Structure prediction request, 293 residues.
Amino acid sequence: MSTEPNSIVITGANGLLGKALCETLLAENFKIFALVKKVPDKTLSGIEYVSCDFTNDLDVLESLGQVDVVVHLAQSHRFRDFPDGAEDIFAVNVASTHKLLEYARKSSVSHFVYASTGGIYLNGKSAITENSPISSASQLGPYFGSKMCGEILTQNYSSCFFTSIIRPFFIYGAGQNRSMLIPRLYDKVSNSEPIELQGQNGIKINPIHVKDAARTVFELIRKPQSTTFNMAGSEILSIRQIVEQIAEYLAKAPNFDFVDGEPKDLIADISLMRSRLYDPKCTFKQSLHDLVR
Prediction:
């Protein structure tokens, strides 16, 4: 683009990544429309919050006027609740994506960023590139399947504007829902509960701190391109290593429950992210304070 973008719509702005991205963009003087299901009690100064339920019509979009970029981070909170939550999963993860893409097309938006997930890939021993195999439809399940549908919808609008897809791997940070992997492990160690491991070490992952994730998305906004990016951290850690670092921080002995089975790693190759966008800086050990309740 010839000029820097300055106005942006962010869905899921109350979420972990959404909040961090809003803070990053505020520091860069962006005009931000934050689409949220519920306006938070504690708002960020300089952001225009717009109440929007993605399970219903998105007529509110028409009132926003001209914006440069749409970043679609919102996802269904019922992603683990199938089949009872299937309607919500479809409405938020698929139908709303289509409506936002149509809004972007009609409003002459120049760049659409869609947040998918690294969970769509087949696990394995090798680092996963953006061209690695995707799990079959029967293996994806309803949540990952809905994210894959969102990717396909987004890619089909690449003739209308830049369409960027990010596939995050295990984002963590302050204020995260305690049901997510990293805070869940922290709480188990804190409560002296056993952590189940396949083999001696469990799977290996490379989690990314939310500050690094937000900076990556910011750089993507600055450098629009119709590309898919893995988004993960620079450290590769086994579940055992993660738990042991948490245990050292809490001065507690970890409690492991070893089970049979071959761990299937989920390690993202972030070469493309590093070369085109951002090289993550935060280490897990230095970020452990962010996991405290």
